[in-house]
Design a protein that fits this description.
This protein has 394 residues and is an all-alpha fold. It has a single domain (3-383), classed as Na+/H+ antiporter like fold (Up-down Bundle), CATH 1.20.1530.20. It has helices spanning 3-27, 35-46, 60-77, 86-111, 118-124, 130-139, 145-169, 175-198, 202-211, 218-236, 241-254, 260-286, 289-294, 296-311, 313-317, 324-334, 339-351, 356-384. α5 packs antiparallel against α7 and α10 packs antiparallel against α11. The protein is globular. Pfam families: Na_H_Exchanger.
Length: 394
Amino acid sequence: MDSLTRGIDTLIAIAIVATLAPFLAAAVPGKRVPQVVILIIGGIIIGPQVLGLAETASVELFANVGLGFVFLFAGYELDPLLFRARYGRNAVLAWVIAAVLALAVVGILEAAGLVHAFVPVSIALTTTGLGTLLPILRDNDMLSGEFGKYIVAAGATGEFLPIVAVAIFLGTTSSVAAIVSLLMIGGLAAVFALAPRLIHSTTITRILIAGEHATSQTTLRLTVLLLLVLLGFAARFGLDIVLGAFIAGLVLRRWAPGHVHSLEEKLDAVGYGFFIPIFFVSSGMALDIDSIAAAPLRLLAFFLLLLVIRGLPALLVYRRTLNTTQRRQMVFITATTLPMLVALAHIGLANGTMLPENAAALVGAGVLSVLVFPAVAVAIGSHTRPQPAPAKPG
């Protein structure tokens, strides 16, 4: 079977999983299962370790672009002004505490010979999956008011700072070179952000607006070009593509050509409709399930470490700004993560810094965190929410 046929067969299998995912998610009574979990489980089923219907090598390029879209959306959700307020300052402090705890705990695990990827695992234990959390929290009305701002700030910090750490410590160049490259890609992003203000061409503007909803799809093509250029620039200068994608999202937030909501809908269609499912399904296909079955306690250990290292600092940091119930909720909300764990496992396996069994256990712990922690946070809130007074008889 030639490579083209294998690639098409893999895409068909992935498309089946992606199509069934929303129906399977809706089939679970009383609980919204994030589709990303179903996509990963579907990837395991169609992958080489179960049915053998698909292989990751034939869709690697599509999967990398899907990874780029995941973090483009993460960057787009981040408002840099948030970090100037106390929401952001508290979020950064909680992340720094988590980072110190992660370095200490993973250092002990590495000294004991249990972990061989000190940096990727340490970063993984400080992450929060804001993109995965948003639909769950929105459905339970937990994003409104002051508490919602604290949640968004904590989630954004748990995505942004680990991405910067990945760029500096897991790139293909030295840390100093990575910082220089980081500044360069930041400068390039600034040029992209300022370009529309510097170019006052009515002809260009007219063409962009006229083609926005036509077959030329000018604004969508321009945005995809922005993403691919920054992905390519990051990879060429030894940085990981997640950084280029995240910065592309930051740029897009400040500079969205044409009708913003229309562009967002088109990006959702392209990203969530095609590329992002390929990334998550292929990540499931690459999971080493045999190692999880052989050592399930490894997965459980990472699951508990996520709660302790990423979650528990919330009890201390937010003691003056949130009530007891909200702090307990924040513990489980900030400990919920998955996309960044998948990305770190992908990076660690690609550059040889992470053992397959640790990569599989990390992703498995992330899947378990998405299934358990948000449900606990919602339950904590519902148990303390004041109940309506019973109606008086008569």
